[in-house]
From TrEMBL:
Residue ranges of domain Ubiquitin-like in the record: 4-64
Region (Disordered): 480-499
Transmembrane segments: 318-337, 343-364
Subcellular locations according to the entry: Membrane
Entries under InterPro entries matching the protein: HERPUD1/2, Ubiquitin-like_dom, Ubiquitin-like_domsf
PROSITE patterns registered for this protein in UniProt: UBIQUITIN_2
Keyword Transmembrane part of the UniProt annotation: yes
Protein name: Ubiquitin-like domain-containing protein
Length: 533
């Protein structure tokens, strides 16, 4: 069976690596291979592989995903925080494309002859690959070997040496996949035997230039020379291709004016011919003193038109409060029938209009003064928009105080029962589980309170903070249990002692918790957040 190279991208940790699987493999086999190759060794049940925007199921086969050999085999990996069996890859230690210490290409090719062209190859061939990056060293080595084989008529793979060619081949494959190219199979084919193949083609160097000229145009190439020409046709294309990091060249565009404008033509008349509104001076704009008195555009008596303010309406911010208003209205109509109580129907209609108008004022902005500098503390409007610094500070402080009180009220409503639950989690006292009546009362209260979007957002953020802390503690406990086999942690003895003390305190605090609290912690650890599902 032929193995396939698949590139795995882990965007959450800026890490990428390559794996090899068989053609008949499915996604479950890929996950097991990732668990072996990826730093941190994530469990297969906590992995999610994404391809072209959708999650891949475990039973999907590799051949069904990439039906064309030209497709880039790249998968994106998402790992649940509880699936890491060891430390995940850090953001600062992402896997490089090639070693930073390799300053030279690790190739050492024996010259085929003493000709000047062979010396030129040894001196200048590495420049082809270094023009883009070091990841094309394998292609550059194949290019050099093919040139020497074409000159001698004998394969030089036995004498040409390259340190770790398999690793450099995988680097070149990844580079071509990132450029959107597929790996040419001719670079992996073996050279045919040179026995009993005839003289073949003969080349000679152009005098004074690093080029080859065909000396025997009537001769037929040997099989080994034919293969070398196939390799060169691929390597020349790859090594001379422009780097994908280069920005595209700017394209110069030209346009023509369909209507020539004369300097002595009235611009407003010209705009009227085009069907456009006339130009008017804005408030406070001065006339151009450089215009001639007889210029038709010099209109000292023109009346400045008021500035037109066109604002975009935030539909999302407007629709959510209106939808919540509809829900509250339906809830009232369920308990009170307006057909039997006309007075209640009038009150309900007035309340709906008031709430809708308040929503429009808050969202669109008509409820506030357009120019806050034009209003003093007594509510009087200054036509000139002048206001003292003290008035501006007092008005801003009043607005901040009112907004702070509202935020404190919403925050208090959203933290219903959270402080008591946190005390149960951290205290470790034998507390009974909540009764059925407590659960029903809490459910009804939260259902009514979270009808307000701000209360819903605050409570969701508070729950995410608490569950994140519980997941972190659970991961620390699991890591400590896995390291009990005698492995010593890195660091000084004092730091290891402090870490062991903190881990021991976490384990003891968790063991003191009641059974129903431990079940809640386990459910938090093994369940995804609703926003991530």
């Amino acid at each position: 069976m032929t193995s396939l190279d698949i590139r795995i991208e882990l965007p959450a940790y800026s890490h990428s690596f390559a794996i090899q699987v068989e053609q008949w493999a499915n996604i479950a086999n890929v996950k097991h291979e990732i668990a072996k190759s990826c730093p941190g060794n994530p469990r297969p049940d906590g992995q999610r592989l994404i391809y072209k925007g959708h999650f891949l199921a475990d039973e999907e086969r590799i051949l069904d995903i990439w039906k064309s050999p030209d497709d880039a085999r790249i998968l994106h990996l998402a790992v649940h925080p509880s699936a890491w069996t060891s430390n995940p890859p850090s953001l600062s230690s992402s896997s490089p494309m090639f070693p930073a210490s390799s300053a030279q290409i690790p190739t050492s090719v024996r010259p085929a002859s003493e000709q000047a062209f062979s010396q030129y190859l040894r001196a200048h061939t590495p420049l082809l690959a270094s023009s883009s990056n070091m990841s094309l060293n394998y292609v550059n080595w194949k290019h050099h070997v093919a040139l020497q084989t074409l000159l001698n008529g004998v394969s030089t793979l036995d004498t040409a040496r390259m340190t770790d060619p398999d690793w450099w081949r995988s680097v070149a494959v990844q580079h071509l996949h990132l450029c959107g190219w597929s790996w040419p199979s001719v670079l992996d084919e073996e050279y045919p035997s040179a026995e009993n193949s005839g003289e073949g083609l003969k080349y000679e160097q152009v005098i004074g230039l690093p080029y080859l000229s065909l000396a025997t145009p009537d001769a037929a190439p040997t099989p080994i020379q034919t293969h070398a020409l196939k390799v060169l046709s691929v390597t020349f294309t790859i090594l001379t291709a422009p780097s994908p990091e280069l920005p595209p060249l700017p394209i110069a565009t030209s346009y023509s004016t369909p209507y020539p404008i004369n300097a002595q033509t009235d611009l407003n008349e010209h705009l009227q011919q085009l069907g456009l509104p006339p130009i008017r001076l804005a408030a406070g704009q001065n006339f151009n003193p450089n215009l001639h008195v007889n210029d038709p555009n010099h209109l000292p008596g023109a009346v400045a038109a008021p500035a037109v303010e066109i604002r975009a309406i935030p539909l999302r911010a407007l629709m959510v409060p209106l939808i919540m208003l509809v829900f509250r209205t339906l809830l009232l109509l369920y308990f009170f029938s307006p057909m039997k109580r006309p007075f209640f129907a009038l009150l309900l209609s007035a309340w709906i209009l008031y709430e809708a108008w308040g929503t429009l004022r808050v969202v669109i902005g008509d409820g506030r003064v357009r120019n806050p500098r034009a209003v003093d503390l007594n509510g009087r409007v200054d036509n000139n928009g002048r206001q003292g610094p003290a008035d501006r500070r007092d008005a801003g402080a009043s607005y901040v105080a009112n907004r702070g009180q509202m935020q404190a009220l919403l925050n208090g409503l959203s933290n219903l029962n959270l402080h008591v639950e946190d005390a149960v989690l951290d205290g470790g006292l034998p507390v009974r589980p909540p009764s059925l009546g407590h659960k029903v009362k809490t459910f009804v209260s939260l259902m009514l309170l979270t009808l307000h979007p701000a209360v819903w957002d605050y409570r969701r953020a508070a729950l995410r903070r608490r569950e994140g802390r519980l997941r972190t503690e659970a991961n620390i406990r699991e890591a400590a249990m896995q390291n009990t086999d005698g492995q010593n942690a890195a660091g000084s003895p004092g730091e290891r002692t402090e870490d062991e003390t903190r881990v021991k305190a976490l384990i003891e605090a968790h063991e003191r918790r009641p059974t129903w609290v431990k079940e809640y912690v386990h459910r938090v650890q093994t369940t995804d957040w609703a926003d991530d599902v």
